[in-house]
Amino acid sequence: MFDAIILMAGKGERTGLSFNKILYKVNNKPLFQYSLETFLKSPFCHQVVLVVSKTDEKEVKNLINDLPNVKLTIGGNHRQDSVQAGIALCEEKIVLIHDAARPLLDLKSVDKVYQETLKNQAAVLATPTIDTIINSELGYNALKREHLWNVQTPQGVNLDAYRLASKQAYKEGYYASDDISLMVKYLNIKPVIVPGSSQNIKVTSKYDLEYIEYLLGRS
Fold first, then answer.
1. E strand or H helix at 82
2. All structural domains of the chain
3. What is the pTM of this model?
4. What is the DSSP letter of 19?
5. pLDDT digits (tens, 9 = 90+) for 60-72
């Protein structure tokens, strides 16, 4: 079994909305609810922890309407702080950490990340990079595309291992851009890459909102 953490405490200012993008409704359903429902459909899901901002707490509470196996907690200033708040409520050995701004997560991907994390302590959903990526620091230095991946969520972690890595990171004042990086840096754990879907996009702009509406309108 696993616990899921859905991160919802950001502001999403680049979407141009006057409110948190995870509350934006498509087909009369807020964005965060799509991935929440996906996790709850998994037979391996023990509970879901929603990490929200204090500003959105009341509204989110009303929207989930006392759903069983769903908890709420308040996030922090940084992603890592919000993950830590969610981790504090987790009970299972495996935890899957997901961005609420990725509503098109599918159940098959959830279960694959869970199974790989169970075997390897860490796993991450990602898609192969199709564009040419250059490192401009060294001029026009094209990186080898076959080794490049676009990291998505969920990212799966062993609860005890993550807590150990996180404790060391806070001691050093180190903040990573994603969840798996802490385990790589402090425990030398190599995560398994689980091939994901190109449709599992993260909503960051007004265009993304329009694209999500199109994709969900087709389903």
1. helix 79-87
2. 2-218 (3.90.550.10)
3. 0.94
4. S
5. 999 998 789 999 9
